[in-house]
Amino acid sequence: MKRTLGTCYYPEHWPREIWDNDARRMVEAGLTWVRIGEFAWSRIEPTPGDYRFEWLDDAIEVLGSAGLKVVLGTPTATPPRWMIDKHPDMLAVDVHGHPRKFGSRRHYCFSHEGYKAECATIVTKLAERYGRNAHVAAWQTDNEYGCHDTTISYSDAARVAFRSWLRTRYPGHGNDGDITQLNEAWGNVFWSMDYDSFDQIDLPNLTVTEPNPAHSLAFRRFSSDQVVAFNKLQVEILRRYTDAPIAHNYMGRITDFDHFKVGDDLDIASWDSYPLGFLEDRVGTTPDRQRKFARQGDPDFQALHHDLYRAVGKGRWWVMEQQPGPVNWAPFNPDPLPGMVRLWTWEAFAHGAEAVCYFRWRQAPMAQEQLHAGLLRPDSVETPAMKEARQVSDELRDAPIVASAKSPVAIIFDYDADFAWAVQPHGKDLSYFGLVLDVYRALRSLGQSIDILPPSTRDFTGYSIVVAPGMMHMPDDLKRALVSANAKVVIGPRSGARNGEMSIPTPLPPDLPGLDVTVARIESIRPDMPIQIEGSGQIVGYREELEGAAKVLMRTTEGRPVAVGNDHLTYAGAMLDLSGWKSLFRDICVSSGLRVFDLPDGVRLRETATECFWFNFDIKAHEIEGATLPPVSVTRQGKPA
Ligand code: GAL
Predict the structure, then answer these.
(1) The domain containing residue 626 runs over which residues?
(2) Would 441 disulfide with which of 100, 179, 212, 300, CB 3.0-4.6 Å?
(3) Distance 322 CA to ligand 1 centre (A)
(4) Do strands 69-73 and 33-36 pair parallel, antiparallel, or not at all (unpaired)?
(5) pTM for the complete prediction?
């Protein structure tokens, strides 16, 4: 498939006189796509029912006739001020019970029926007008669901909707909700939390001490379903008027709604990649590594998202926003090293992105993001990123095809597990996403290319290794599918540790057919109390006491089992540091016949159907297999036969 570039543009921010020149310069830089419109509601409908589409008609015409393809965003992430007068209770409410005020963005509650009706109207208007416009080649719904902690809202509207959601989840025989069923499922006998009716159930905030984890998990699942429904409402309208593909732009490490379920209604998954902002703000690495990669970004964080969104998009995915220079929102906002914008772009293509769009075309002189770089400075002079974008576009002209391939290794990613870990982390800073990133990093530093799989997967044909870390609720048919897969399978820690209602199951976990191992006890441990593993590596943060006759594959220096299993199935009962995970996976990769490396931190390999892409994030050159990888570089090689 041919790969393309684009940018994010806000014609409403700039005088009409410069649009033509902007469009011409975009084309001249080799860009194909221009995304517009996603924050423009106040200029499309300045007062209720007064639609001003002429400027948008003009902008689409200018961009399209210059040769660009337009991605049109629905503007529902930025309801205008009049909307709050019309629907004062549409604002989301935070965990402390405070409404989240107007004056930035994403100030809406996914459960507010009045706001949803307003969204349906504006999306219908846009779709009627532009659904058949030849220049509008793709659509984007809203902008970054969940960003700025906006998935969960403790509003009155959410309370009403949560009660109806619970009625359908615990339907009883009359299908109107059976409160006894809910009380049983949640274990509400504990602390006399039994309810007599669904109308008594409140949202799980402002309780004296922690609410029932079953209550919290139900609320998280409900909140996720509200995002899915909100997106679906827009998609169903758009599809009545357009055949163009529909995308949403997800944000890095936002895991509080199920992206696979949102993705089921869309044609393309896309995400917004800000490697330097993420390193400071959400990777969760050590200060030393933050310093080492301050101007390059974490070498695995973006790649994990690329692989995740390839799965969410069922193969079709983009980077909708790519950092082109310093951002404005992280604790520190450095400039990328020369070459990094190109490296990030090629990394996305190597992982299968169809398009990479730079955010944004020109730095805005006003408002919240005035310190956020673009491809152009506020005075329209090119920034260094523009030169790198141009370089990639030249390279794409010469070698536009990157052929995706199935990877040998797969990791199952389960948003529901992330909700469960968030409800009950058991130890400070223990997180499901963090565990998956650790496992991913270890496999990548062994040189592996990885596919992410949704938790609904039952057919593992074609994979050499399948890993299911931390999947708190693991349905029985998934356990059976994994145990009977042809691949080597690694499960745990904390897999199958709860039933679907957040209670401990008996038989005790992991309860894997054919493997005699039981998690007898668990402990979370201070980060400064690591436990040494025989050979190399440490247990950090969390450990399970494993009992049973299964063969011990890895043990602590005191002789306690860390991982047990057989040639086919491994159960890992701890969270490990990088060398611990590497030593566990190295043997499994070697015995699966995979090519195994011991890559330096910062050097990563991604194999496509025909090529090896080597990425060196380090400021030092590295020698791998006789080839020199220069500092901060991309090296394309033919794949060995
Ligand atoms: C993204 C967002 C953009 C812009 C950008 C700044 O999260 O979608 O609108 O705010 O961050 O880095």
Answers:
(1) 603-638
(2) 300
(3) 10
(4) parallel
(5) 0.98
